[in-house]
Amino acid sequence: MKALVTGATGFIGSHLAEALLRKGHEVSCLVRKTSKLAWLDSLDVRLFEGDCSDINSLQKCVQGQDYVFHLAGVTKAYAAGLYYSVNAKGTENLIASVAENNSGIRKFVYLSSLSAFGPGVKDRPPREDEKPHPVSDYGKSKLQGEHAVLRYADRLPVTILRPSIVYGPRDREFFWFFKTISRGIMPYWGEGHTSLIYVDDLIRAVILAAGEDASGRTYFVSDGEMYSNNEIINEIAAALEVRVRRVRTPRFILPAIGFLGGRISKMFGKNSMINADKIKEIMHPDWVCDIEKAKGDLCFQPRVDVKKGIKWTADWYRIHRWL
Ligand SMILES: NC(=O)c1ccc[n+]([C@@H]2O[C@H](COP(=O)([O-])OP(=O)(O)OC[C@H]3O[C@@H](n4cnc5c(N)ncnc54)[C@H](OP(=O)(O)O)[C@@H]3O)[C@@H](O)[C@H]2O)c1
Fold it and tell me: How far is 17 from 26, CA to CA, in rounded Å?
């Protein structure tokens, strides 16, 4: 089978490209002129140059594909417009190009995010039939991406996944926690609960979604547990074998930190994790979801618990000298 992966130069996309090759698929990847190909260099994949923001560049890569996995996205930006031009408009461009050039496709899988739904409440983790209420531009742009995909659900077979925070080898975002904790300190802005998923489990869910017969369904995916901020800090500290001191950081000063982070990023022209948009999310304590629908419809069973996943990730960071 032929599969196109967008976002394959990134964290999750590179793991997906590898997994699809292992399953014997012919894999193509959409890459930009500026993309760093480090994770793809040793893989037997076909490269198509293009950019989701430019619909004219998407015609060739979608032709003849059995599956399109749309993972390309902007997860951090100092200017909100970038979220919308890639996550919303870019998704609309890609699915429009599939409809025009490859209407016989077997499945279009869109990797959205829990952020597109918004924060939840630990005691009653949200389900997919509830109304989304994203709080960040990132989340709003991913929700617009979902809407763009669903507009084609009667013409093309589409499935949307909304992963919680994803972690694992090659990740540079959740890595911030590993890096900070490795120095023996961690800002602590109070209790909260988070769903997490190890990257290999997410890849399994993505591949299961591609095999689903139905069209137009949306699924939360995580490892099925909810972790308190303290548990996460403790697991990372244990994996890194460090003692960590929590530095109390009242939530009300977080927006100022986000503002400053955004300003510094802009000055250096580099998008950073610490920005006002990310802080809008952190201001909400609980980012959790219920994955019963994915378990039922997709037969998705997470296999990696947080202890193992964090240990493997920490080992990878050490072996690759990121820590
Ligand atoms: N990481 C998480 O915790 C998480 C959680 C939920 C959902 N997601 C979603 O999962 C997807 C992948 O995330 P990730 O963590 O793997 O991010 P990542 O490592 O930053 O990778 C992003 C990928 O998107 C590509 N991309 C960005 N703008 C593009 C454009 N205009 N045209 C074509 N490609 C473009 C990047 O290509 P370049 O190499 O050229 O920059 C890169 O390959 C995203 O859609 C994200 O919203 C991630």
Answer: 10
* Secondary structure of 205-266 as H, E, C letters: HHHHHHCCCCCCEEEEECCCCCEEHHHHHHHHHHHHCCCCEEEECCHHHHHHHHHHHHHHHH
Q: Which of 27, 40, 53, 75 should be mutated for ligand 1, with most atoms under 8 A from CB?
A: 75
pLDDT in tens, 266-303: 777 777 777 888 889 988 999 999 999 999 999 999 99
Position 6: which residue type? T
pLDDT reported for residue 271: 75
Q: Which atom of ligand 1 is nearest to the CA of 90?
A: 31
**Closest to 119 in 3D by CA, of 281, 291, 294, 293:** 281
pTM, 2 dp: 0.96
Hey, CA dihedral for 323, 10, 110, 299, is it positive or negative?
negative
- Split at pLDDT 50, 70, 90, the class of 3 is very high
User: Could you tell me the domains of the chain?
Assistant: 2-167+195-225+287-304 (3.40.50.720)
pLDDT tens-place string over residues 71-120: 999 999 888 999 999 999 999 999 999 999 999 999 999 999 999 999 99
> Residues in the chain, how many?
323
53 within 8 A of 85, measured Cβ to Cβ: yes
Q: Number of helices (H) and strands (E), helices first, in the chain?
A: 13, 14
Q: In this structure, what token pair is assigned to residue 161? A: 């996944």
CA of 116 to the centre of ligand 1 (A): 15
